[in-house]
Amino acid sequence: MLRPNCHYSELKDTYLFYNISQKIKTYQSDNPGKKLLRLGIGDVSLPLCGEVIKALHQAVDDQAVKETFHGYMPECGAPFLREAVACHYAGRGVSISPDEVFISSGASDELGDILDLFDRDSPALVTEPAYPAYVDANIMAGRKIIHLPAGQEEGFVPAPPGMETADILYICSPNNPTGAVFRRDQLESWVDFANKTGAVILFDAAYEAFIEDSSLPRSIFEIEGAEKCAIEICSLSKTAGFTGTRLGYTVIPKRLERCGMNLNEMWVRNRTTKTNGVSYIIQKGASAVFTEEGQRQISENILKYKRNAGIIMNALDEAGVWYCGGRNAPYVWMKCPGYDDSWEFFDLLLNEIQVVGTPGAGFGECGEGYFRLSSFGSRDDTAEAAERMLRLLGK
Fold it and tell me: Mean pLDDT, to the nearest integer, of 36-62?
């Protein structure tokens, strides 16, 4: 008799964003004339930049001509895009080779798939507050999870534990949900810890393009020794508006080995077994992101989101509310003033001022009492939401 994966029964009954959508659906049904201002789920609102659109159109035309038609793409990524990513890193002083770059359909997919590299008996350490999928993917795999909480005292940037605790270490910088960014010395301590214990860091760099402080690392491979202990997973979703187009890339150094096995070679085998590669059209569009003009255009869009974050931060400053993030990240992580229950604070904002955010409790126990606001909406909606919050919280 077939046995299903019983670990699915260990998952929480409702996923964070599903729960939010159900609350919104109920509110809109009861209040059809009310305008909601959404600062919750981190989907982008600006369209793909002109250089990407031009490249996508050209790629579609390529598929209409026999001489330029492309069928199956290389499973690990088209050489032109792998080279473009490697050159992008080189421009920031990080040396990686194109065959250490793997093109994917997005960071979320890759964060789940990458677990194939590790034995199910290998425990995972998740630094929290954290993106919920880190935990859920490991629960589905039947893996032991160690939760490492961080709090306001350390700016939501945890230090490595005092002893060997896990084989897989999750770090997200800039962090989702807190917007906190690891300083160079803080990342160095994690790299030293991983190399000492034999662990592997899964470094989620989906929001690296929002870092404007040049003293803060945008890649873990800026840290000496990371090439022997880290995998970096990146995305064009928030960098270039690819949330609906789907493309990411993963860097696995050739020097990363464990128990005599090379993880780069293992991932080549995994991708050539389990995938048929990412669409030629999408990869051509992505390659335009890494051109000089593409970088200029996406930087303009990122600046608009960062201005939205500034609007939110100014309102919280005026209201006297503690927060972190925003300056080098698209998320602002605020303390719920007068509330220990972040879902109660969610209901307050929804019912009193029709502003939607994300309760911190959905990102782990240490997120309780905090709230995530996203800067990915329109400028007008962000400004109106900030004004409403100031009126409510500044009393």
Answer: 95
